[in-house]
Amino acid sequence: MSLLLFKVAVTPLLVVAATLLQRRFGGAIGGLLTGLPVTSAPLSVFLALQNGPEFAARAAVATLLGLTATAGFCATYARAARGTRWRPALMLAIIACAALFSLLAHLPQRPLPAAAMVFPALAGMALLIGPATPAEAAPHAWWDLPARTGFALAAVVGITAAAEHLGPTWSGLLATLPVLSAIMGSFTHRHAGPAAARALLRGIVVGSLGAAAFNLVVALAILRAPLAPAYAAALLAAVGTATLGHAVLGRGLRPVAPE
Length: 259
Description:
Distance between the termini: 39 Å
Shape: globular
Helix content: over 70%
Largest sheet: none
Oligomer: single chain
Structural class: mainly alpha
Order of helices and strands: HHHHHHHHHHH
Strand content: under 5%
Radius of gyration: 17 Å
Number of domains: 1
């Protein structure tokens, strides 16, 4: 199977699985699952196969840093959603995210200093959003699942195709573009209210702790071990860290009854 066919086959399957789990367990837990490296994990594997382990290691550090921008998007939207409609909240969140991206692109790209900044930042953003009370699940539009899979597939295929021109830093940063957070957050806000959107976005931030652990392990291990064990260790770290984050920060992230 060619690398392109592998991308086309794997990425939609991962997004569909995460979406169905979200619908089964509710918006808050769905946010937690969405925060995991559903898109960035296959992207990292594709970059390693296509451009080599060193490129993928540098991109993983950039992705680790970029999670701060994703969390900034979620926190800004969640805070703004308390007093405004979904369109102004979305615009404010996009502005905050863009400002963070421009800052993060100029930071030193080293894994341990990046981790020392990112993990406290993610925890702080989750606390800034505040307790997320359970809310009824939002209705599912017919285009919701096709839109998620389409955007995720376009991001993975587009970034890997342009990786040589983008370089590892921007390839890694763009992997954290909060496309799914924007779609899910604004749709939930519009159809189920700000409390449901806040629960979803807080879950995404908590789940991003798992994505941060994944990219940290990739950055540290991929140059020292074969790809398969390095990525297996990264996935285990992601699940373990997200589980711990949910236990410590997941107050209010209780599942709600599905429709």
